[in-house]
Write a structure and sequence with these properties.
Distance between the termini of chain A: 80 Å
Strand content of chain A: 35-45%
Order of helices and strands of chain B: HHHHHHHHH
Low-confidence stretches of chain A: 66-73, 117-122, 227-252, 357-393
Number of strands of chain B: 0
Oligomer: heterodimer
Largest sheet of chain B: none
Radius of gyration of chain A: 36 Å
Structural class of chain B: mainly alpha
Radius of gyration of chain B: 17 Å
Number of helices of chain A: 15
Largest interface: A-B, 62 and 66 residues
Structural class of chain A: alpha+beta
Amino acid sequence: MNPEKWKRVETLYFAALERPLELRQAFLHDACQRDDELRATVESILAADAIDDDFLARPVLEIAAATLPPPENGLAGKRIAQYEIVSMLGAGGMGEVYLAEDTRLNRKVAIKFLYPESAADLPAYSRTLNEARSTAALDHPNICAVYEVGEAEGLSFIVMQYIEGETLAARLEREPLSLVEALTIAEQVLQALSEAHAHGVIHRDIKPQNILLTPRGEVKVLDFGLAKRLPDLSLDAAARLAAPSEIATIGGTAGYMSPEQVEGHAVDCRTDLFSFGVVLYEMVTQRKPFSGETTVQTKTAIVQHDPPPLSRFSPDVPHALDNIVRSLLAKQPESRPRTADDVRVQLEPLRKQLAPAGGAMSLVKRVVLSGAVAAFAGLGFWLIVRVYQPTRVPLQYTQLTHFSDGAAAPILSQDERLLGFIRGGAPFLSRGQLWVKELPDGEPRQLTNESKPISTPYFSPDGSHIAYTITDPPRTAWDTWIVPIRSGTSQKLFSNTTGLTWIGRDRILFSRIQAGMHMGVVTSSESQSDIRKIYFPDHERGMAHYSYLSPDGQWVLIVEMDHTAAFRSCRLVPFDGSSTGKLVGPDGTCTSAAWSPDGKWMYFVVWFNGESHIWRQRFPGGTPEQLTFGPMQESGIAVARDGRSLITAMGLRQGVIWLHDESGERIVSPEGDAENPRFSATNHRIYYLLRRDITTRELWVTDLLTGKSEPLVTGFDIVRYDVKLDETQAVIAADSGGKKALWLVSIGEKAAPKQIAAEGDHPFFRPNGEIVFQGVEGKKNYLYKISADGSRAEKVTSSEISTTRSVSPDGEWAMVFVPTEQANTKHLVIPISGGEPKQLCAGACIAKWSPDGRLLKITFSVFEIPEKGETFIVPLAPGEMLPPLSPSGLRSGADLQELPGVRRIPNEAITISTDPGTYAYVKTTLNQNIYRIALPR
Amino acid sequence: MADVTQLLIAWADGNREALDQIVPIVHAELRRLARRYMNAERSGHTLQTSALVNEAYLRLVDARVHWQSRAHFFGISARLMRQILIDYARARGGYKRGAQANAVPLNEAMARGARLDDDLIAVDEALLRLAQMDERKAQVVELRFFGGLTEAEIAELLKVSEETVRRDWRLAKAWLRRELDTGTP
């Protein structure tokens, strides 16, 4: 039939329908005239229309589901790996479950095979497998054990404990539970949840179908961590990072979902508590608290409606139980009990009160549970250390990483399944690499392969990526990059952006430089088109590196550096930027901060009295209290979402000075944390700073001929120093009341050190006894010189500088970083007696002279990271303090290698002597690893 | 995986290529859900196609997109559900009908569940013929029968009145019955 004819059919058909039945035939006869075929067609359609049955009445899928034969017993009779498949037990969202015989261990098991279709849904699929692996670590009488996660013959499967029994769903259908029975089951479900949550496993799909009652009266919770979740919606790097991190199970179990699951927000263990509350409600009342005719209605009820109290349906219900259930069903996770144990503690007295004398239990037998710690004992990877603080609050430490090369800067994904950290580097600027590890015991995986220093990792809101900072000024300044966790390569996300955190959909909080090195905290949307300043340090060399938004979004904790590039106390500023806020935490060097999820506590990692420990302070008005003690130093902090624990990197820092000469390499410093070595002009002695105890850093010297080491200047926390060429005097910069002051010290005499500047840093001797140093005026740093008696100080140049790196032994050249208008610095050598500065390098570099000024070491980097990069040792022409330079400066090592006698050393952090074959370097072992610390209440 | 929400918006804005990216994602999701519905969880549950599509929608699409995109999604889903169900039917051995095929009382067959697969294939083929004559009516059948959409939803999607949808459905259904009962093209 062509469309024209069909059009006629349609017109006639509806026209006929408008007429009474008996008139239709006549009407069609007239209307079709002699076109009998047309008439017959319309008549046959009208006849078909008259049949009143259910043709096409229901959508096909409903019919299909109701009428199709049961699925074939696919794999039964087959053998896969060591499993003989016996029969199908059922099928679920992602796969089919079979009863099988483990021929190796001679036991019945249940095997869940994942549908190949599920594999197309790759994120959810691999998450399911990974979760099964983490569930495999759960060993608890109330949790159905996962034995194995395997793959064979192209099928992925999960082998689980086979449990004979009845689901709670079936049991509830069969007959109502007594209140005591309900509470007894509830307690065991809570035990299971408590155990899983302690391992960072969230069930996400607690419902009567997943709770099994065995004939022996045990309660087993099934499918832990197997709950299917939404695929990540934004695997595509930077484009859409604000997608919800996870949206939980949807399907037949809508009535047990938590409001945050319904709304697609991130979930934590309190989601399980909500679902548990629904189950408890149903066990007591035989009713589902949230139900509707459609899934959408049910979900609306979950988000909007408060169910009637239990007592409306069962008058016997104690008031206390009503309250517990109401708190479990709170719409806001924060309003629910925090842990399964909290609920259990509340339920237990009720059950005891209700239980008949003797506690006889007809249906469900109480199972005696081993404590969580005992359950861990068999697992070799749990290290539990107890440390007592003066208030005798025991902290329980659980080691999460075990690297010999250390791990720092720990971060937790939103769902707390993934631990991210920088392996093999320092906490701040680190030549380590970004790694992730699935908690509790996944295989750590390397994500980045950066040659430049990285810092400030942070999980994207959907948990699929980690953002981090690459720093290598001036070439890359502070840029935020992003690397996918699953697989893929890093991409640059933002320029001039560091310390990035997401603070909501499409909102970010980060630090950026407005000029030179003046770094502050700002916020914007992800487009960065609407940047709003929150806080910039007063001093133009100040850098606010990290920021942490309070849970209520009103306050920001800020970790900042002062004008000498030293971290200072943390700062609390209003998010609206209306004031510069106030300093918080102890009066020390704050390197990291965090909030408790309820916003009531501020946490800090602070160097205080020479130790780096975790402190906390009540928001807003509390006094700081120290939380961790002991020889291990903490760095980095992330508080778990339940507020019950935090993770941090802990370790002992030790720096050892190695001497490299023609006879090989050897250690020259005594035990302790040594740094900043410097040779005497004779090459016979080596000076360095040594921290032996925790409160002071002393100036030491080792005689390289005799091997004898001795302290020269003690009683100060020395940060930087210089030794006069004739070795009669030292000048030190040391902490003094929150600032750095300069002192002149006579070596070998008992005279008291003499303060020559109340504030100063980076001191260097000139041959005439004057001292060149970096001082401060107003909001800027300048280069000064001062006479040895401290009487005359004057600026070397009128232009500001950022940082001083070195001064030539002839006292005529200072190597400094100078801020530029952009977020950048230039690296210049400034003539101290006047004249035009020279550009030493086109990009970043550090130059330092040998004590006799005949060699210059150049590193094309600004950080001098030990045992990384390369150093060029350049012989200087007699009377010259600089190699030949083009106006734009040196570009790379290639420019130097053409010069005669240049040596290349594969380590950018070396100290040169007067002999190009002899140099020293520091080997620092931080030995940090990541720990979880359970917090006192 | 691409973001279905963004793609839907792009598609609604006239970017045809976006659809090419949406289809495989939605297809995989629906296939998975359909399989689950047909294989299990059948006892005691009233299955609704719209619930299934809604589930796919919730899983794939940011719930805050405007209704138009939602309608588009349901439209695509109906097309895909048709494809999926027909694929299943063929895979289970439903034979391809031709002119020689016997007339089958579809309602009865469906009630028994006996020859559903064959009937589905027959409906599918008849719909192809209907589409050649009258695309909108074929769409209405697809959306309602394969997609489980309500008349109101279909009206919204096709930008016609509900009355038009009802009339289209009535004629298309009668015509399809006649096609299947007689087996004549």
